[in-house]
Amino acid sequence: MQTGKIGVTSENLFPIIKKFLYSDHDIFLREIVSNAVDATQKLKTLASKDEYKGDVTDLKVRVKLDKKAKTITVSDNGIGMTAEEIEKYINEIAFSGANDFLEKYKDDANAIIGHFGLGFYSSFMISKEVDIITKSYKEGSKPVKWTCQGTPEFTLDEIEKEEVGTDIVMHINEDSEEFLDENKISEILNKYCKFLPVPVVFRKQKEWKDGKEVETDKDNQINDTEPAWTKMPADLKDEDYNNFYRKLYPMADEPLFHIHLNVDYPFNLTGILYFPKIKNNFEVQKNKIQLYSNQVFVTDSVEGIVPEFLTLLHGVLDSPDIPLNVSRSYLQSDSNVKKISNHITKKVADRLSEIFKESRENFEKKWDDLKIFIEYGMLTDDKFYDRAMKFFLFKNTEGKYFTFEEYEQLIKESQTDKDKKVVHLYTTNQEEQYTFVEDARAKGYDVLILDDVLAPHLINRFEQKQTDTSFVRVDADVAENLIKKEDSEKEDLSWEEKQELSPVFQAVVPEKNDHTFIVDFKDLGENASPMVITRSEFMRRMKDMSAAQGGMNMYGDLPDSLNLVVNTAHPLVKKVIEAKDKKLSTQLEKMNADIAAQKAEAEKLEKAKEGKKEEEVPQAEKEQLESVNNELAKLEEEKRSKLADFGKKNKLAKQMVDLALLANNMLKGADLDKFVRRSVELIK
């Protein structure tokens, strides 16, 4: 028997392995099984070169759980090791430079394995003792058993062993007895070893017999050794891709598209990415891409490895150029990872462009489900934005689809404003904004549907990139003013007339804290609605973006600023004006005369002050001017009060305001009940 010490002087190595090497102790089984797979693949390679004459037709890795002995054994029939190789690969190489490395990475112990191949030693995280029982493929080699109890001391004995290969026997410590559960081992193997390239067997297959589950004589192979991404795209059909998707995500709906990646220069990368169906407006399903290295599962937390917007996709990526066991910070700064990330972005854009060109009809059918990915990518990745502009689609209210360029050609002539900007009109809810959409279309305009949560951000991005383009929601103004042309608006009321009418209608708008109304007057034509409620494009867009970000900015708490546009050409509005004139004309004439007299007096006193410094104006004149201004303010307030009182009592004025509110889905509860009752009274 040989005894000795592992080639490491620090007594701290094993505690670090046990406690800090991995955040997830489950990974020990991945490491040991992966080593066993490597050993079998190496033997197969030697056989292909005629350097090994034995049988390689039944290479397997077996995992065995013995609850009574409290052991987990991973066995392979691979190349095995000689005593000299154990000394070299287990006792020396794995620890070369370990002390310096530990000092350098004491705050990032995850990096150890990635640099020094310490995968085998992860077994000590859950073991009080580990045995290596092995026989090399080399002729004349003696089988040996290496034993270590998690200290630098080990023993090495010659033993009897018939078959070539290696058994790793882990004697589970008291703190880790959870790993003696059969379901736990199945779960770990299914997570990390599901697609390893060599058959991995754990226990026997089970079947139901006489009302209970019993073991059969057949081995239970837990992995698919040739998953879809390892094959050439030409050898796969759509059915194969969909079957593989169901294997990855048994409960998911059928995917929209898939992209098969197969790159061997300037780095190795294979994989299949799927665009899943999103069930609601923005259902973020990150951690659905599985990252592999040579078919060994690494992680499903791929942020920093793939572009942010592609974390919404599902599927598999496999690259030996991504280290297995290094920390996330290392991955995010690794040059290979960055190259892979950029390449994936390009491949996804190329594939989408290809699908768009090959089958635009199919692309359009899936656009509503697909667009959230593309919009997210355009918002977070400039290069993807430029590529996506070729296949990004607008959908209009008629259900037709256009690329950005196609749509600009469609609307350029009719929807270019006086500043030479092409105005894209849009609705965020075709049903709720139906009247505005129809009014815009009646003017000969086309209207887009931009109804998802990313739309406000995307609109801003478009306007930043395409500076000769603007976007205006259909309810931002009356149809005549949505696109400002050179011709001026019709004006049939003077400023004084508008000032006199404003209190009448301001008196009947709702008084609520969540929105304010500004009354305006326009000639919209006698066939248009008597009143229209519009929303400022700028303020509404800022509030929409604030809501999408959780309301954490100055616009989120501001009330909605709404415009009540009174159509002065409508017969009902004229009827209210006539009623106002008939009831208040005498009183208003006197008030206006008094106001005019006070204004004249105020102007006279202001003129007397011209050319004088403040201290040169007599105090009596100052007091007289103040008195005149106070009287003027009082008279104007009396006039507004008189007009407001008329407005409150005028059922027709209130009815028209409520109709405008109803058209905007803003009339509810008690106000709606009053509207219905008033409607009955007016109909009688």
TrEMBL record:
Chain ranges of the Histidine kinase/HSP90-like ATPase domain: 24-176
UniProt-annotated binding residues for ATP: E31, N35, D76, M81, S96, G97, T166, R328
Region (Disordered): 606-626
CDD domains reported for this sequence: HATPase_Hsp90-like (cd16927)
Pfam families in the cross-refs: HATPase_c_3, HSP90
Basic and acidic residues bias spans: 606-625
PROSITE patterns: HSP90 (PS00298)
GO molecular function, one term: unfolded protein binding
InterPro entries: HATPase_C_sf, HATPase_dom, Heat_shock_protein_90_CS, Hsp90_fam, Hsp90_N, Ribosomal_Su5_D2-typ_SF
Alphabetical keyword list: ATP-binding, Chaperone, Cytoplasm, Nucleotide-binding, Stress response
SMART domains listed in its UniProt record: HATPase_c
Segments crossing the lipid bilayer: none
Family of the protein in this entry: Belongs to the heat shock protein 90 family.
Name used for this protein in its record: Chaperone protein HtpG
